[in-house]
Amino acid sequence: MEWLLPAILLLIVGYTILAYNKMVRMRNTFQNAFRQIDVILKQRHDMVPQLVATVKGYASHEQDTLTKVIDARNQAEQLRAGITTDDAKNMLALGQAEGLLGKAMGGIFALSEAYPELKADGAFRDLMEQLTSIESRVAASRRGYNNTVLEFNNVIETFPTNILANMFNFRRANELEFDDREAIQAAPKVEF
Amino acid sequence: MAEQSSYLLAANARKQSRLMWGLFLLSLALVSMLIAGIVSIRPVTGATAHSSQWLIDWQAFIFTSIAVAVLILLACLWKIMTLGSDGADIARALGATEVTDENSDPAIKRYRNLVEETALAASLPVPAIFVLEKESGINAFAAGKSTDKAAIAVTRGALELLTRDELGAVVAHEFAHIRNLDMRLNLRLIGLIHGLMGLYVVGRIVMHSAGRSRKGGQLVFLGIALVILGLLGAFFGRVMQAAISRQREYLADADASRFTGDPLALAAALKKIGGLQRSGLQEAVHDELEEARHMMFADLSGKLSGWLSTHPPLIQRIQALEPGFNPDTDWPQVQAKPLQK
């Protein structure tokens, strides 16, 4: 029976190695997915000044709507720049800021209905197409990220992997939720 | 949820693919043994005076069945190899032009965006993007054997006549084909049909040479058997290909509407195709496309129906997406724009 102890130890060590590697792979996967969102959010933010400049040319006295968009954009960009996925508070704030920005941009889309010249402007139409596309990319990459995060969290919070996760300091990642469901559905419908 | 159902669909595709291979191997074995039987059977007279006996020469039987099986397999593989696996090559051969980054046409930009969005949402690599510039009807296809060598193409008519949501639904339909590996399934089916047609060709040669040899009786019989088996096999292969293809179209429609969450957009695109068909504007301009009819989003003319048709009837596809659709009154009027050549 003297082989029993080493055999059990060997099993435990083998399992630990496998589980550790799996958790590392999953962490890399969701971090990669987050970088993808980050790139797209940056694109979204970078488009706002262009959009505002174009709209100003046709609807300069809609300052209220435009200021709102710029403010929302600046706040979201600030949060995006300093974000880490394991900071629950910041992730929540970023989601809210992006949601606000979506709503504010929805205001511009709605406004364009009242300005036929703006709507007919080629540059504006290009921007609208670009924004519509970015909105659906944001939605898709967010869904992808949230799925990978869910898988990762499931592993590090269930037994027995939670013990190892604790030992090796794997920390719960946070999903990115926008509270803008109606805004995304209502805003970027562009018909040509 | 959407992810889950597409996993199911992909599993379904693999199951269908395995079933097809099973059937193929079974028919391969049957055909080979039948032919080997004809070759190796010998009448034996002598041992008992009155009754002549039939004996099988087992060595010849095994040898011939292996030879026939190898012959069919080779013809099948050769066809699959020459059909190629690179989607972009197939698209080019069908007269499509690749979309480049610099293209500033707003319709093409929108299309490009849609493809990239869908690829992102489906976690698939972005396929090579093509346009069939000379086609004024609404159509699309996906080509390529694997997800990382895929190409997607739509007609100029689809770019001009569909709204963003409708075009997005068509793109999602093609992505469903790419993801479900339908092109590979179809390629294998074509290879199978070709392999069976190889039997027919060999049969013709055997019959021809048997006519000249002296002990031709058995050989002529063999030739006839080969010709009949080859033709029958190819015919049933085509029926099977069409049946599978119809099924895959429904699946791609279902997959696409789950994917976009908007079955009505896909229905609207199909309705526009119906509207074009009714005014005779949906016909393909390019002859090359006729060869690829099984790959297209919609049937090119709607002439073939029933067993050999590769697409379900348009009306049934629309009704699967939009149950209230009434084919007597609900076709949209579509103004086809003439294309500058």
From TrEMBL, chain A:
<keyword id="KW-1133">Transmembrane helix</keyword>
<comment type="similarity">
    <text>Belongs to the LemA family.</text>
</comment>
<dbReference type="Pfam" id="PF04011">
    <property type="entry name" value="LemA"/>
</dbReference>
<keyword id="KW-0812">Transmembrane</keyword>
<protein>
    <submittedName>
        <fullName>LemA protein</fullName>
    </submittedName>
</protein>
<dbReference type="InterPro" id="IPR023353">
    <property type="entry name" value="LemA-like_dom_sf"/>
</dbReference>
<keyword id="KW-0472">Membrane</keyword>
<dbReference type="InterPro" id="IPR007156">
    <property type="entry name" value="MamQ_LemA"/>
</dbReference>
<dbReference type="GO" id="GO:0016020">
    <property type="term" value="C:membrane"/>
</dbReference>
From TrEMBL, chain B:
<feature type="transmembrane region" description="Helical">
    <location>
        <begin position="21"/>
        <end position="41"/>
    </location>
</feature>
<protein>
    <submittedName>
        <fullName>Zn-dependent protease with chaperone function</fullName>
    </submittedName>
</protein>
<keyword id="KW-0378">Hydrolase</keyword>
<dbReference type="GO" id="GO:0004222">
    <property type="term" value="F:metalloendopeptidase activity"/>
</dbReference>
<keyword id="KW-0479">Metal-binding</keyword>
<keyword id="KW-0812">Transmembrane</keyword>
<keyword id="KW-0645">Protease</keyword>
<keyword id="KW-0482">Metalloprotease</keyword>
<dbReference type="Pfam" id="PF01435">
    <property type="entry name" value="Peptidase_M48"/>
</dbReference>
<dbReference type="GO" id="GO:0046872">
    <property type="term" value="F:metal ion binding"/>
</dbReference>
<feature type="transmembrane region" description="Helical">
    <location>
        <begin position="61"/>
        <end position="78"/>
    </location>
</feature>
<keyword id="KW-1003">Cell membrane</keyword>
<keyword id="KW-0862">Zinc</keyword>
<comment type="similarity">
    <text>Belongs to the peptidase M48 family.</text>
</comment>
<feature type="domain" description="Peptidase M48">
    <location>
        <begin position="112"/>
        <end position="322"/>
    </location>
</feature>
<dbReference type="InterPro" id="IPR050083">
    <property type="entry name" value="HtpX_protease"/>
</dbReference>
<dbReference type="GO" id="GO:0006508">
    <property type="term" value="P:proteolysis"/>
</dbReference>
<keyword id="KW-0472">Membrane</keyword>
<feature type="transmembrane region" description="Helical">
    <location>
        <begin position="189"/>
        <end position="207"/>
    </location>
</feature>
<dbReference type="InterPro" id="IPR001915">
    <property type="entry name" value="Peptidase_M48"/>
</dbReference>
<keyword id="KW-1133">Transmembrane helix</keyword>
<feature type="transmembrane region" description="Helical">
    <location>
        <begin position="219"/>
        <end position="239"/>
    </location>
</feature>
